[in-house]
Amino acid sequence: METSHHGMTLSYLYDRRLLVKALVVGLLIGHACAAEPAPPTAVAPFAADQAKAHQAEWAKHLATSVEQQNSLGMTVVLIPPGEFMMGSSPDQIEFALQWLTTIPRIAPGEADRLRNEEQPQHRVVLTRPIRIGRTEVTVGQFRQFVEATNYVTETERFGGGNSSKAGETDPAKRTAIWHSPGYKVTNQSPVTQITWNDMIAFCNWLSEREHRERCYRQSDQGVWMRVANANGYRLPTEAEWEFACRAGTTTHYSFGDEVAALDDYAWFNRTAEKGKEIGARPVAAKRPNPFGLFDMHGNAWERCQDFHDSTWYGKSPLEDPQGPATGSHRIVRGAGWHYFDLHCRSAYRNNYSPISRTGNTGFRVVCGL
Ligand SMILES: [Ca+2]
Fold this sequence. Notes:
CATH superfamily of the largest domain: paralog of FGE (formylglycine-generating enzyme)
CATH topology of the largest domain: paralog of FGE (formylglycine-generating enzyme)
Strand content: 5-15%
Largest sheet: 5 strands, antiparallel
Structural class: alpha+beta
Bound molecules: calcium ion
């Protein structure tokens, strides 16, 4: 924009003060109209202080703050656009296979899972800034949803938790629901014992509450479909989750490769099954990752948007991958409180049926800026 004194009357120009004022205003307008170049995207690897610098630069560029509180009192954290290598390198897979031999209870097919799921390691570009929950969604936050809507979870309608049946008949499972998952919880515990659809219902409710666009609509067959580019609440894509978890690191965990240090960052079987107390713990009690996110490793598994396909990494697109178009199971990440250190790795993938619900599976939301 050009602002000059050409259009002004001469009488104005006789007044020096007005002339100075006009020039200052012109400079200010010119400054505001010049497109501020976007900060660099966060291309991994980057160090912890650089992760924070990327967040701060993008917050400044977008005239917002890195952390914001939403209407539920949930803190959502800005994650900058970026690039990273998703999955594990061949050396990391070899290391994990050796590691697996030290674990006493090895699930059948676990070695194949490590070999197949995390390879090939591939570059991913995330083109947009997002916000992601600083913690897993809590019992207290889910309680606000239930109280506002009288929502009855699928778990309750299906006959109870710790199950993947739509018609669970075991009476012992009937009481395993979101506020009594089978261990002691507080409002700060991650909500568990809910299905994928229950999480989607929560996300759509929260979007409406905050006058954001809903991220999911139901198809004619009653299946929840993602609405592209809606700025409301949703589950993270698997790629968004891993980028947010790694926060610039290329190591097993977001703090490095030292397995013993996981005790400081995660509730998993070594830290969460001590003594008589079992179960997920109140969120944000351990150390955060470089982006300021808590419990990305451990506590509750975190459901993602994507369907599961063990060959997906060989065909995933470079930019903003959304996962396979169809599938029977959906991805979960980060491992739950009774899993092993191996499962808490940033690259580890697991998948559950959308209707399964357990006391160690929860979620974390993403929303637009
Ligand atoms: Ca978690």
